[in-house]
Amino acid sequence: MQAMKRIVKSDTAEITIKIPEEFKGKEIEIIILPLESTKNIFTKVSKKERLRGLFSVSKGVLPADYKFDREEAHER
Is the pTM for the entire model greater than 0.90? Predict the structure, then answer.
C-alpha cells in the first residue's frame, strides 16, 4: 500500500494537495489532523533521573542472589 504524508501550515481554510499518478481514478481517504507540538516531546532529563528510571524498570529482573562472574563471561 502506498501512502503519502504532508505537513503544511495553512493561513486559509483551503489547501490543494497534489496526489501521485497511481492514485488517479481510485477512491482515496483523506485525514486531516492538527499537528501536535513537538517542542515538549524531548524534555531535558538529568542523567541521575534517567538512571533511576532504568533501575526502577529493571528492578527484580535478576534473582536477588545473582553475582556476576567475570571469569565466566570471558570463557569461550
Answer: no
